[in-house]
Amino acid sequence: MEMEEADSLRRVAMAFDLAARAHEGQRRGAGRREPFISHVADVARRVAQSPALDEETLLAALLHDVVEKTDHDMAEVERLFGSEVASVVAELTDDRSLPSREQKHRQIEEAPRFSDRAKRIKLADKASKLASIAAKPPGWWGRPKARREVEQARKVAAGLRGLDPVLEQAFDEEARRADEALS
């Protein structure tokens, strides 16, 4: 193995380790037993299917929720993984000081202006969410809330299209599965 390849693998392992430690004890969705890190790993796995995969995109996929959902900050991400990765993570980080409805509206509005890397990760993130809804929506949601979440994911994905047919097709498949599960 060449040194550059080994360095890349080390950085991926470091990003996964940081995400695993940062999200330790977190569960995906209210009332679920699934560790949150499984979502992070699923998003990274989905992004890895893209023919345009590069190291920075994979690193940002692993770290996409670290700043938004933990006490880690963007300065730490930049110090450990560089400005390119931090920039993508920043694009994907919702402003938690805003009400949920405003965050969702901003996701729809901002998605078309995302960088290519952020678009790929957001498509994988939304596909992962839909897969989770199809498998078992959180019990407290009920079908109407779950359907609204599917529609929200579709609206965000609409602004991400035209870049990565592989990830778009995977998103569409998960949306179809979620629709079937909720019908």
From TrEMBL:
InterPro entries: MESH1 (IPR052194). It comes from the Bacteria. The keyword Hydrolase applies. The lineage of its organism: Bacteria, Pseudomonadati, Pseudomonadota, Alphaproteobacteria, Rhodobacterales. Transmembrane segments: none annotated. GO terms for molecular function: guanosine-3',5'-bis(diphosphate) 3'-diphosphatase activity. Gene3D superfamilies: Hypothetical protein af1432. Signal peptide: none annotated. This is Metal dependent phosphohydrolase. The keyword Hydrolase applies. It comes from Rubellimicrobium mesophilum DSM 19309. Residues 94-113 are annotated as: Disordered. Keywords: Hydrolase.
